[in-house]
Amino acid sequence: MCLCPWTHERGKRFVAMPNLTYIALHGLWLSALALWLGGLAFAVFVAAPVTFETLPTRAEAGHLVGRMLRRFERFALPCLGLLAATGGAKFALFENPTPPILLRYALLFAAALAALISSLWLSPTLAELRARLDPIDAVPEEDPARRRFRTLHGLSMALSLLQLLLGAGVLFLS
């Protein structure tokens, strides 16, 4: 938006009006991006580690972190949906398909896919395993179900970090 007056060809001066549709779309885009990315960063780097450091058993901490992450997923998926909707509208109405813009949407698509895999498959599977292994501290390390839980938990952490990296790329290109 240019607030500086310029000269029209007949010598008349005027001020450019901002495109309110773009401002609204971009504001919603940035808000959804900030809420999703900031919430995910808080969950990964603050809430989960502090919970595991504070509660007396891994079982209690895992239960609480699992509940927090399930609640966050109910918040994050609508944010990603809003990003898709506002991004699609911005792209259709205002943006040219340049490589940085296409890369931004490819990164967003990959992050949304990782979030969907985590929310729709990984989180329910981990919750089911956690319920069967309760309390997990009493289950031997060699138990196949506990090994599967550990593997899926590692995948869950990797998907969260992947979402953070992809989201940072989306933010950088926004």
Describe the structure in your own words:
With 174 residues, the chain is mostly helical. The chain has one domain. The chain is 77% helix and 2% strand. The protein contains 4 helices and 2 strands. Strands 1-2 form a two-stranded antiparallel sheet. Strand 1 and strand 2 form a beta hairpin. The longest helix is centred in the middle third of the chain and has 36 residues, at 58-93. It is elongated.
Label this structure with key terms.
mainly alpha, two-stranded antiparallel sheet, 77% helix, 2% strand
Write the layout of secondary structure elements.
Layout: E1 6-7, E2 13-14, H1 20-54, H2 58-93, H3 99-132, H4 144-172
Antiparallel strand pairs: 1-2
Helix pairs in contact: 1-2, 1-4, 2-3, 3-4
Q: What ranges have pLDDT less than 50 throughout 5 or more consecutive residues? A: 1-7
Distance between the termini: 16 Å
| Number of separate domains | 1
Spatial order of the strands forming the largest sheet: 1-2
The outline comes out as elongated
- Helix content class: over 70%
The SSE order reads EEHHHH
Mean pLDDT: 89
Brief digest:
The protein is mostly helical. It is 77% helix and 2% strand.
